[in-house]
Structure formats: C-alpha cells, structure tokens
Amino acid sequence: MDQKTAEYVINQCACFHFRKASRAVTQLFDRTLAPAGLRSTQLVILVLLQSRKAISLSELSQILGLEQSSMSRIALLLKRNGWVKIQKDKQDQRARTLMLTRVGSRLIDKAAPLWQKAQSLIVKNVGAAEFDELRVRLKGVIKIGQPS
Q1: pLDDT tens-place string over residues 94-106
Q2: In angstroms, rounded to a whole number, what is the distance separating the alpha carbons of residues 56 and 30?
Q3: Burial call 79-91: b when 16+ CB within 10 Å, e when fewer
Q4: Domain boundaries, the chain
Q5: pLDDT, mean of residues 115-132
Q6: CA–CA gap between residue 73 and residue 116 (Å, rounded)
Q7: 131 — pLDDT class (breaks 50, 70, 90)
Q8: Helix 128-145 × helix 102-126 angle, to 10°
Q9: Is the pLDDT reported for residue 44 higher than 80?
Q10: Which pLDDT does position 148 carry in this prediction?
C-alpha cells in the first residue's frame, strides 16, 4: 500500500474512528465514575438490573454485545462486590440469573450524579440535537456489525 492510500485508510477507516471514539468515551465515564468505585460497564449492568429486577447472563451478554465468558467474569466480580446476586434459573438449572442487591441499588444512587456529569459533558460538546441524531445512527451501525 502506498503512502497516499495508507493515509486515506487511516483518515477514513470507520473501525479506527469508532474504536477511538468508544475508547475516549469509556475512559471519560470510567474516570468520572471512579469516586463511586465503578466502571461504566458495571453501572450499565446495575441499571439494567434495577430496571428489570432480574436478567439472565445470556440476555445481558446480548444486550451489551459481550461474549458469554466475558459476561460471566463481570458477573462474578459484581457478585464478589456484593452488588448482585446470581441464582440458577428456575426453568433451566444450567442458566444463571442476576439480581440487584440493596448494596448495588445504593451504589447506583451514589453513581447517578457522576454519570450525569459525564453524560452532560458529552451532550454539551456534541450538541443536544446532534447527540440524539448520533444515538439513532449508532443503533444502525450496531445492527450492521451483529451476526444475522
């Protein structure tokens, strides 16, 4: 590949730019949530559990776009911290279901203003209308990358 083509690829590569943006946003939220002792992915999981009461590991994996093994490791960490309970599914003893604990619920309350701070910073820098449009367009990008 010649230099001109290489520069074009670097400047135009969707994967590179989405990955770099994703990393920057994740780092911002992780830094902002650090005083609560949480990472951004952990907060999203806890909030999902709060909104649904209980979710299977496999459903959480699908929602978050994670492999089952990664989701299992995260779930064990959340359990070790006392933020979730993990129980066998009543219909399928092989499946595991996560539920939020009171400690996890209190942690969400502690983290919510920190999350709002990071969220507001993103929206302010992108623009409210542009952020809404970006969110909609990203859902389309996510669909492209998912297996059929």
Answers
A1: 788 999 999 999 9
A2: 25
A3: eeeebbeeeeeee
A4: 3-145
A5: 95
A6: 27
A7: very high
A8: 110
A9: yes
A10: 63
pLDDT at 109 over 90: yes
Find out if CATH 1.10.10.10 is the number for domain 3-145.
yes
CB-based burial of residue 111 (10 Å sphere; 0-12 exposed, 13-18 middle, 19+ buried)? buried
For the chain, the helix, strand and coil percentages under 3-state DSSP, each to the nearest 5: 75, 10, 15
Q: Running DSSP on this structure, what letter comes out for residue 1?
A: -
Q: What is the mean pLDDT of residues 29-34?
A: 97
How big is the chain, counted in residues? 148
Task: Report the distance separating Cα 73 and Cα 2, nearest Å.
Answer: 43
Strand segments, DSSP code E, in the chain are 54-56, 84-88, 96-100
Encoding tokens for residue 137?
Answer: 């367009």
Quick one: DSSP state of residue 37? T
C-alpha dihedral sign at 119, 17, 63, 41: negative
- The per-residue pLDDT for 76 is 94
